[in-house]
Amino acid sequence: MKPQMFVGRPAIAAATLFATSATFAGSNLSLTASDATIGVGQKLVVTVGLNGDAVNGVAGQFILSYDTSKLSLDSSGGDHYSLVSGSPLDLELYENNNAGAGIYSLALGTLSGTGNASLSGGFVTLTFTCSQDFCASPNLVTFTSAGGSSSGLSNAAAAFITLDSATNLGSVTRDTVAPSLVSTPANVSYWADANGSNAAAVSITAPTGSDSCDNNVDVTYARSNGSGLSSFAAGLVTTITWTATDDCGNTATSTTAVDVSADSLALVSAAQGGAFAASEAFTRGLRAEFAKSLASDSDTQTITLTPAGSGASSRSEGSVTVYASGATNWADGCARVSDPLHTLRRSLSIAASSSSGSFNGRSYNSRFTVDGSASADYLAVGNANADAVIDILDFSTFVGQRGSELAVNTTASTNGPHTDFNASGTVNNSDLSFLAVNFFGVDETCGGSYNGPAPMDRIAVRQLRRMGLGYQAIADINNDGWVDSTDIALLMQGVEPGSKRPQPTLSTSW
Question: Chain-wide mean pLDDT for the chain?
Answer without folding.
Answer: 87
